[in-house]
Amino acid sequence: MRKKILLTGGGTAGHVTPNLALLNLLRKNSFEIHYAGTKKGIEHTLVKRAGIPYHSIKAGKLRRYFDLKNFTDIFNVALGLLQSILLMIRLRPNVVFSKGGFVSCPVVWAAWLFRVPAVIHESDISPGLANKLSARFAKKICFSFPETARYIPSSKGVQTGLPVRENLLSGSARQGKEICGFGEDKPVLLIIGGSQGSQFINSTIRSSLDILLKDFFICHICGKGALIENPPKGYCQFEYVNEELSHIFAMADVVISRSGATTLFELLELKKPNLLVPLSTGASRGDQILNAQSFQNQGYSTVLLQENLTSESLISGVKELFKNRETYINAMEQSGTADSRQLVTEQILSIVK
Question: Fewer beta carbons below 10 Å: N end or C end of the chain?
């Protein structure tokens, strides 16, 4: 008899792609897969592309600070909970897996009301508010970083790492260079600004092109609306990369990136030396800085804080990273990273009703 699983998570790609990374293993374990997310969130686009039955529910942002929108969003949260309850009645899932984001809270709460066991996953070192609100209603809490253990009850917590999409592991460096029009005479520097791009990183990179292009071919994933006209030779830019991403990763010798957890674990699994420029505390809750520090402490990355990011510091950091790239690759190879997809799937199977 087939088991039924309801996946949830949304708001950013980081709350969706780890769910999608589990699909093949879930299917191999005879799960019928459904997904709950918002109607207009990024999860809707990504999940529809994967061909999974999708169920739209309302979500309200849960803020720690005073905002008039708190009064209207509480109605969206209540409506999302009602819709999630109706979804439980209609689907009768055997288990729920939540990757976080505010849309996930009412789904986990409704699962608890119907005694449907739930597994939640925390990507960052310190749990986000949505997962904090869901944790007491979950049977298991998977987490990515060793430092996260102190925030989670030992009876529920399991370090699994972060599931990475399998298709990223089968890229071709040759195809990546063909896509970008690169030759073989220089190494490739890849810049990833996160799913929304980074204007700050973009401008610093572009002010450094004259010097960097002497030593590197440069592939720059810069975000929507951030392309420049008449790019110089050896500099290839994309707003966003989807199907070609595995090939782009494969050709990269070194990477400059934000430090969202999903990207970090992709870089770790692909063994790509990286220079991290985490979002500042002024633009986030500081989780990217903690993530980056953890990877730096483990020898996987070097970190350049945004407040210290200049053309000079960037060029120096990239050259130093490339010079010592084998040290970082060796550290990543010794990480002992297990198959996160398998570990998370095992936790789901362990509580299925």
Answer: N
